[in-house]
Amino acid sequence: MNIVDARTRPLRNVRISVIDQCNLRCNYCMPKEVFDRDYTYLQPQQLLSFQEIERLTRIFASLGVEKIRLTGGEPLMRKGLPELIERLLLVNGIQDVSLTTNGILLGVYAERLKRAGLKRINVSLDSLNAATHDQMNGRYFPLEKVLASIEKAANLGLKIKVNMVVQKGINDADILPMAAYCLDKGYTLRFIEYMDVGNTNRWDLAQVMPSKEILQLLEQSWTLEPVTQMITGDVAKRYRYAGTKQEVGFISSVTEAFCADCNRARISADGKLYTCLFATTGTDIKAVLRNGSDEEVRGLLSGIWQNRHDRYSEERGANVRARSKIEMSYIGG
Q: Which of 11-20, 228-237, 303-312, 319-328 has the lowest mean pLDDT?
């Protein structure tokens, strides 16, 4: 069974947050002024269990979902995560399971993740300058340890994709060094425009560096060729370094909306379904998941998706920007 929403977009990807906690305080996601020692996080019993996530994944797969990405918070803070990955990879219909991490715990878990069957990892890394790295993530975890963890995972055969959120005037000087580093290491790099997710990151349009400007900057040093074979629902515009198979991509939610092709849903760590990264509310599916049949859960998911109209980035303006939105740390990036 394959379902489509009110704008005929299929459901193919689901991002599942396994925990709302993180060991960093990135200013565009969990600013430390808000997420301080007094902030109240979810209690263990409020989180979806691994059994519930596995069951939910099976039901999603029956509706046409092919890809699962595990997010947080920082997902590697959830005890036993490799076990969950191993279980999800056995679900019929799921073609890919990936993980987004800040890399701090990656070195500790890399071998276990590989043994569990994980093939690729997205690592959030916004600067190769130690001072800028600390400034943006709000903590002082040594940058060299993060880089060593990424390299350890790559040496084990895990495919690495680096996500760099660019904020003009903060880390835009790191664009070329990051591109050169990823090209040398063989990592796929994604430049992400600074987005107005949530309400606590003090988003300012003036700090958004358009992807077109980043591309023009790269083209001063390398010849880039557009990748014409795009994957349906792929949010990144992809380019290849001429003469290589190495790619770089751009996620341009602010300047080039991709709502028309969006085929992903998000599940928060406490079991709410969100149909847009910029959603104001979600639907609590945990009660039905814990007390209802598979058919009841499937019917709930189908109904939510089939009534989906979201297109925030296409509508972005003063009126929609002013509305209250769910924090990125709550539903993943």
A: 319-328
Q: Which helix (H) or strand (E) holds 328?
A: helix 328-331
When computed from its CA atoms, the radius of gyration of the chain, rounded to whole angstroms, is: 19
What tokens appear for 129 in the block? 């300058």
User: ∠ CA(172), CA(276), CA(54), 5° rounding?
Assistant: 105
> In the chain, at which residue ranges do the beta strands (DSSP E only) sit?
13-17, 67-71, 96-101, 120-124, 159-166, 188-193, 224-226, 236-241, 247-251, 264-267, 272-274, 283-284
How far apart CA 173 and CA 35 sit, in angstroms, is: 28
pLDDT of residue 306 exceeding 60, the answer is yes
The angle that helices 143-155 and 130-137 make with each other, rounded to 10 degrees, is 90
Q: Is the pLDDT of residue 327 over 90?
A: no
197 Ramachandran zone, left/alpha/beta (phi>0; psi -120 to 50): beta
Spatial separation of the C-alpha atoms in residues 73 and 289, rounded to whole Å: 22
